[in-house]
Design goal:
The protein is mostly helical. α1 packs across α2 and α1 crosses α6. The longest helix has 33 residues.
Length: 214
């Protein structure tokens, strides 16, 4: 089996590692949807959450997550509102992803939980920045179809990732590694494009408004 190739002691933790990674990754794309999906799966008996995450199955949490997921589903389809929503949720998704990842290892001691929070928060930040940056670029397109296509892909990506994390944790972690590499490249390209745009419009730059001509 592939799991036998892993370092000793890692294989028994695969379900928890995949769950923490799925929660942190999903929080960076669809925070409320991922909370609702895992909470509902626990409530219906499809998947047992760790003790510190059983609160996700509470009716109040399920109701709030379902409502906010519906709001996000609508907001995500409108380019201007989507960019505003992503900007505001920079302050929500990252700490939420860190907290969810830490809660997976709540019974493993404070040190493990803190380490999970640090790694989970970093994963959520990477996912969120790649998602919001890419969507900001797509939202500048005058036609609506590209935005709807990307948004619908995200709607499907989160439940698919959640299912993979539960059913095939090692496969999910492998695909997640590829995703992180691609996300880092996307962030780099977006930052490079932003720097070029800033130089192009900066006062005093050749060809910029108010700047000397070539």
């Amino acid at each position: 089996m592939i799991s036998e190739l892993l370092p000793p002691g890692v294989a028994p933790w695969l379900p928890e590692l995949a769950l923490a990674a799925a929660l942190a990754w999903g929080a960076g794309i669809r925070l409320y949807a991922v909370v609702f999906l895992f909470g509902l799966a626990h409530e219906l008996g499809w998947w047992d959450l760790p003790t510190h995450l059983e609160v996700l199955a509470h009716p109040l949490v399920l109701g709030a997550a379902a409502f906010m997921a519906a709001v996000e589903l609508f907001a995500d389809k409108l380019p201007l509102l989507d960019s505003l929503w992503d900007g505001l949720h920079t302050f929500v998704r990252i700490p939420a992803g860190a907290a969810l990842a830490a809660a997976v290892f709540g019974d493993s001691g404070a040190a493990v939980a803190v380490a999970a929070a640090l790694l989970g928060g970093t994963l959520t930040a990477t996912t969120h920045l790649a998602k919001s940056g890419t969507r900001a670029a797509v939202n500048t397109s005058p036609e609506p179809f590209s935005n709807l296509l990307v948004s619908s892909a995200e709607d499907l990506l989160v439940p698919l990732g959640a299912w993979l994390a539960v059913s095939w944790p090692l496969v999910f972690l492998g695909l997640l590694l590829v995703f992180v590499v691609l996300a880092a490249l996307a962030i780099r390209l977006l930052l490079r494009g932003l720097r070029r745009l800033t130089r192009r419009v900066a006062p005093g730059e050749p060809g910029a408004p108010g700047g000397p001509g070539l």
